[in-house]
């Protein structure tokens, strides 16, 4: 069981169910023991019908410029240790498994962002899910904060590397758009 009290993860799980993708939500209450240490838990293991299996770590963020956001920037930061931890999971699972950061951007005012529609509606909030492959994120990362030990991507790199998650499922021939809403202002 994952941490369903985190609304970003709950919304993503609801999106996975709507897309009918097979997945496992990982129990984050206990870290896996590896060697002399422990390993950060993944959030989800997802198995699309085509391509690699996804080892997903959710990063919940507010849409830039929304009322709840403190910035107009697309926050895409992550703890620096997460890169090594998810990469370690990739090596443990082996071939055909690929690490993916999923940035779950939430807003309660989707009409302000019609160019970003469709949004996924969950519990009266609206989400758009963007992925960045772990290996690409790692290649382009820069230090955001030494004291917090966080990294991020430049705005340009993030624009170039991110993709909408529904693009993964739209690659399959029988794909239908999951209960996404085209919300206009």
Description:
With 185 residues, the protein is of the alpha+beta class. It has a single domain, classed as Trna Endonuclease, Chain: A, domain 1 (3-Layer(aba) Sandwich). Helix content is 25%, strand content 32%. It contains five helices and 13 strands. The protein has helices at residues 7-19, 80-93, 134-140, 155-161, 166-170, and strands at residues 23-25, 32-34, 37-39, 44-46, 53-62, 78-79, 97-107, 119-122, 125-133, 142-145, 150-152, 163-164, 180-181. Strands 1, 4, 5, 7, 8, 9, 12 and 13 form an eight-stranded mixed beta sheet that branches. The protein has a three-stranded antiparallel beta sheet with strand order 6-11-10. Strands 2-3 form a two-stranded antiparallel sheet. The longest helix is centred in the middle third of the chain and has 14 residues, at 80-93. The protein is globular, with a radius of gyration of 16 Å. It starts with 6 loop residues before the first helix and ends with a strand. Mean pLDDT is 82; it is low at 172-179.
């Amino acid at each position: 069981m994952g941490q369903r009290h985190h609304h970003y993860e709950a919304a993503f799980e609801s999106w996975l169910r709507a897309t009918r993708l097979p997945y496992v939500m990982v129990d984050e209450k206990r870290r896996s023991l590896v060697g002399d240490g422990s390993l950060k838990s993944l959030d989800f293991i997802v198995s699309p019908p085509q391509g690699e299996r996804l080892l997903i770590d959710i990063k919940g963020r507010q849409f830039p410029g929304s009322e709840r956001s403190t910035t107009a920037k697309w926050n895409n930061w992550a703890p620096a240790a997460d890169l090594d931890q998810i990469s370690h999971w990739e090596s443990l699972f082996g071939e055909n498994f690929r690490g993916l950061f999923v940035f779950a951007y939430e807003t309660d005012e989707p009409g302000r962002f019609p160019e970003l529609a469709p949004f996924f509606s969950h519990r009266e909030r609206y989400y758009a899910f963007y992925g960045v492959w772990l290996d690409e994120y790692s290649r382009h990362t820069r230090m955001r904060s030494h004291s917090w030990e966080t990294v991020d991507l430049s705005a340009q790199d993030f624009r170039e590397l991110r993709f909408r998650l529904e693009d993964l499922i739209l690659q399959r021939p029988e794909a239908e758009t999951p209960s996404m809403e085209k919300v206009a202002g």
